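Sanity check. The docking grid for dioxo(di-mu-sulfide)dimolybdenum depends on where the pocket ends up, so I'm generating a full predicted complex first rather than guessing from homology. Inputs follow.
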Amino acid sequence: PEETRDLRVDGMTCASCVGRVEKAVKRVPGVLEASVNLATGGVRVRRLAGSAGDVALREAITRAGYEATLLS
Ligand code: 9UX
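Predicted complex below; grid placement will be based on this.
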């Protein structure tokens, strides 16, 4: 089964930021899809249930140079 996580990402200001964040999150094992909403500063992640941990998601975004907060 799949599950969805929403995170807020601070520091994204342009389309390249969106690409960086999506690419970074998609590289986390178990992640199926990552889509950023630049207007809201959110990223919705679809992943295999019980795969990538929330910490791994946050760290991937942090390593890409942005601040991430898990919302749900
Ligand atoms: Mo362009 Mo977005 O440098 O940080 S990638 S504003």
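Relevant for the grid: The beta strands are 2-10, 31-37, 42-48, 67-70.
Also worth noting: The pocket of dioxo(di-mu-sulfide)dimolybdenum is lined by residues 13-14, 16-17 (CB under 6 Å).
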